[in-house]
Amino acid sequence: MQPSSNQQRPAHTRHPLLTTLCDRKETGQKSFVVLLDPDKVGQDSFKDLLIRSVENRVDFFFVGGSLITNFVLREVIETIREYTNIPTILFPGNSLHIEPTADAILLLSLISGRNPEFLIGQHVIAAPILKQSGLEILPTGYMLIDSGVQTTVSYISNTTPIPYDKPSVAACTAMAGEMLGLKLIYMDAGSGARRPISPEMIGAVRKCVDTPIIVGGGINSVEKAQAALRAGADVIVVGNGIEKDPELLPEIASAVQALNQPALRSAQ
Ligand code: 1GP
Description:
Blueprint: H1 5-8, H2 11-14, H3 16-26, E1 31-36, H4 44-55, E2 60-64, H5 73-83, E3 88-91, E4 104-110, H6 116-133, E5 136-144, H7 152-157, H8 167-179, E6 184-188, H9 199-208, E7 213-216, H10 222-231, E8 235-238, H11 240-244, H12 248-259, H13 262-267
Helix pairs in contact: 8-9, 9-10, 10-12
């Protein structure tokens, strides 16, 4: 079989965002992701959020979620492109949430759960579509962590999250994911989580894997963002918090940029 043109390209151009995430992790540079809700695309607040994301140097957008009620992903990506050059990564809930005009997709294997559909089933259905799409594929071990209430993603995926106070379970799960070849670990307390993932659990995972670690769910203050980053998160994802309080975006962006100052980094 002839290799495709994608396979002939050097790895850093085939996987530009993965290369960026790994390079940033190696150099201790933290990243700030804003999670965009596709259901809000027509609203003025959506465009305003895009403009403010550029002003505040947001690193990446995630687009998606476990339940999308409006199938407007193409329009969402078009609107993002109109206002920004920020790389846009799909955060799909299932194999219907694929939009080839995005930059990349988190190919999530829900390794905290035991539902084969979200470990491999949806991936098999999506594989030929993804292969043709030209999207950069980001193989990601997705771990749901209990946040005190049942989240949409836990309900939809029909999986039990890892208990909040069991860092060793999270660490072993992440290790297994890395050994299976997953390139990123995403620890998620779920959108709007009552409490974010504990620094203890993030720290335990940090000690056990070399992949970049993404942390999200319930980060609704600068202090919570800083706690996750200091515990070992490389990337933080914020959605609900910014929707509720627009001022949080510049505040968290400044906190991330402050942590990325070389002098501060060496003092951490
Ligand atoms: C959810 O990690 C994301 O999957 C973001 O969560 O909306 O609570 O910030 P929030």
